[in-house]
Amino acid sequence: AQTVTQSQPEMSVQEAETVTLSCTYDTSENNYYLFWYKQPPSRQMILVIRQEAYKQQNATENRFSVNFQKAAKSFSLKISDSQLGDTAMYFCAFMKHGGAQKLVFGQGTRLTINP
Amino acid sequence: GAGVSQSPRYKVTKRGQDVALRCDPISGHVSLYWYRQALGQGPEFLTYFNYEAQQDKSGLPNDRFSAERPEGSISTLTIQRTEQRDSAMYRCASSLAAGQETQYFGPGTRLLVL
């Protein structure tokens, strides 16, 4: 079974700073997908970024980028020029390619951006 | 539709009552998923459908929980004889096709069992 671990329960940075959220996972699969979802105080689940395991290039979406280290089974999220609206819970998630397509989530990291 | 919708958004019920939670996926999305999220935790998988077929129900905690998607669009998650431990946020997600596509989540139904 796959597991996803987020070792930072809470983080806090000043506005405009860069912050990195950690995520590690355990799987015997070779082909899979990794995601970061954001859950603001409204408790909506919003996709931030997605990475296919077969791609060596790290995914980027504007101020959000990932550092995907397949051998180390690590998938960290970097937020550049952080904004107050980035304050949220962030969940890392794993999905196998093919077969059962359920998402396996980590425990989450609560990120606070301070003015 | 513009996004995944769920109803009701909030449900308060008494222990022992049955509840039905509804999910309306994004138009054209083949796959539909149900998750449960306890406060302060990540969502946990319950079940999922491709079209009207329930492909995996391994996450349903016991036989009081069931789900259906009879016409391959709207889905209903039913909890019979609710217990206080069933209190949680129930989330629905949909994806364009199974296995490769990103799952988009609805706003969730917050269930409180008294």
Describe the structure.
The complex is a heterodimer of chains A (115) and B (114). With 115 residues, chain A is mainly β. Chain A is built from no helices and 12 strands. Chain A has strands at 3-5, 10-14, 19-21, 24-26, 32-39, 46-52, 60-61, 64-69, 74-79, 88-96, 104-105, 109-114. In chain A, strands 2, 5, 6, 10, 11 and 12 form a 6-stranded mixed β-sheet that branches. In chain A, strands 3-9-8-7 form a 4-stranded antiparallel β-sheet, with no helix packed on it. Chain A has a two-stranded antiparallel ribbon with strand order 1-4. In chain A, strand 5 (32-39) and strand 6 form a beta hairpin. Chain A is globular. The mean pLDDT of chain A is 94. Chain B has no helices and 11 strands. Chain B has strands at residues 5-7, 10-13, 19-24, 31-37, 44-50, 53-56, 65-68, 75-79, 88-95, 104-105, 109-113. Chain B is mainly beta. The chains are: A mainly beta (115), B mainly beta (114). Chains A and B meet through strand 5, strand 6, strand 10 and strand 11 of A and strand 4, strand 5, strand 9 and strand 10 of B.
Provide the descriptors you would attach to this structure in a database record.
heterodimer, A: 115 residues, mainly beta, 12 strands, 52% strand, B: 114 residues, seven-stranded mixed β-sheet
